[in-house]
Amino acid sequence: MIRFAESMVIREGFFCGRRLAFADWVAIWFMEEDQVKITSADTAMHLETWTPEDVDHWAAQFEATPDQSTRLKVLSMPSTESVQAESADAGQAKTPDQSDQSVQDDHSERRAA
């Protein structure tokens, strides 16, 4: 069984987006920036940032895929190892930016409470 989790992102008492979690990745849609930022499940690595055009592209590809098993391949994200290898090749570390980290810290505090 595949499990998704969804929650609201609240900062300083204001709604600012939605958080979606899947097996080994987390996507956060930031309303004001109209971007989706995707990180590894442990938020240690920033995988991708999608603009509205990127979201439309992937949504169209997902909708055009009739077979459920193939749809899961569309949703699959790069593994941690492949992202680390790409980062090493580029000579850059991929980590969440400060705004992503503050959202994750907020979620951690709520879970601890």
TrEMBL record:
Q: Where is the composition biased (Basic and acidic residues)?
A: 104-113
Q: So which domain of life are we looking at? A: Bacteria
Disordered, as annotated region:
69-113
Q: List all Polar residues biased stretches.
A: 69-85
State the name under which the record lists this protein: Uncharacterized protein
Species this chain originates from: Crateriforma conspicua
